[in-house]
Specification:
Layout lengths: L3 E6 L8 H6 L2 E3 L5 E3 L31 E6 L18 H18 L8 E3 H7 L25 H15 L3
Parallel strand pairs: 1-4, 1-5, 2-4
Antiparallel strand pairs: 2-3
The structure holds zinc ion.
The site of zinc ion (ZN) has 4 residues, from loops.
Amino acid sequence: MPKRIIIHWSAGAYNPNSVDFQHYHIMITGDGLTIEGKFPISANEVCKEDSKGNALYAAHTGGGNTGSIGLAYCAMAGYKNPQNVGAYPIKPAQLEAGFFKVAQLCKQYNIPITKETVLTHYEFGKTHPKTSSKGKIDITYLPSYPTVPAAEVGDFIRSKVAWYLKNKVS
Ligand SMILES: [Zn+2]
């Protein structure tokens, strides 16, 4: 069973590309649709590689793939900073669709909503500075909630997911 959910942005456009399919279990498109990646969530239970070293799991979080569901918002290509967000900022309805999906996954897999179990890639990198996740910026900015500071985006997401779990997921 997966033990945590790590939330990303793809740094791409509003639909997944072939690389995204390899690296995430679940993708939220610009239209708020949920798309499944190539590898099932169960493939990350024990992360294996083939004889050529190709991952047979969704490699979404360096140093943290085992037991982790990887969910990505398809968005944020060209993002530089809050004043220069590029042509694909996460859309309001897209963002909410992702919160709802995370809440569903929490329910389905009995994952509690804590900093260790529902977190952003950015947060994982902060707490695991010896991994390749160090310095990742997804997710440090929410275009539809621009006043939430980078350091609080994870807490904000968890509060939203908790609301969806309580009110929308049965
Ligand atoms: Zn990421």
